[in-house]
Amino acid sequence: MSIHWENMASFSSRSAGKSAGWYTRRVGEWRCAKGYVLGAAGWCLTIRPSGRAIRAPLNSGVRVYMTVDRENMQRALKHFVVPQIRALGFKGSFPHFKRRANEEHQMLMIFFNKYGGSFYVEAGRISDQHIRELQQLWANAGNSLDESSLTVGHCQPDHRGRLGPDGFSRKDHWFVFGPDNANSGSYPKQQSSAYDKIASQVALWVSEHTATFFGNAP
Question: CA nearest 84: which of 218, 214, 215, 211?
Fold first, then answer.
């Protein structure tokens, strides 16, 4: 099923038509075909998973929702950053990676802002002793914690750091690649090279700073 604006006041469900305002369902959201409007007068509709509908001007070359931004950013990260992470001995799948070294689990995580437009890269380490302590706490609560399910989120705050120009630190650093949902109604179209540039920078910093973090962190 697709949604198509009949005019500025109403819309109806129907198969996708030939005009610019038709939508396809993808990743739990509704968006314009290929993520961009093709150029027509009127309004377009975005329906979030919550069911809330948002209208945005249907202007040529203007983004109406950030789904495509995230897809493009994730594609670039998988192309540039993930190979670098694996080259450092980390295993796993996007967005969680881990390796074993010096009687501890060392982890990297790529976390996207749920409101769109940004992400951060975080490193964390957790000792075998602390894992056993966590597993005991979980067992006391009637749950289980397997080592395979460990993420950066299980690490203590002082054993975590976000990636930035100065390496991994406690600073609240985000990589911004597009609009958040408050600004998704109108935002200039970006070329794929913009996402590649960000991902290339992340890959470089991962290469430069990962060893320092895991070597110097307590």
Answer: 211
CA distance 94 to 92: 7
Confidence of residue 67 (pLDDT cuts 50, 70, 90): confident
Domain residue extents for the chain: 2-57, 67-183+190-216
Q: Is the dihedral of CA 112, 114, 116, 118 positive or negative?
A: negative
CB-count exposure of residue 43 (10 Å: 0-12, 13-18, 19+): middle
129-165 pLDDT, tens per residue? 999 999 999 999 999 999 989 999 999 999 999 999 9
User: 213: number of CA atoms within 13 Å, CB side?
Assistant: 27
Question: 79's torsion region: left (phi>0), alpha (psi -120 to 50) or beta?
Answer: alpha
| Residue of 188, 208, 179 lying closest to 70 (CA atoms) | 179
The residue behind tokens 């054993």 is: 159
> For residue 89, is pLDDT > 80?
yes
Residues 81, 204: contact at Cβ < 8 Å? Answer: no
The length of the chain, given as a count of residues: 218
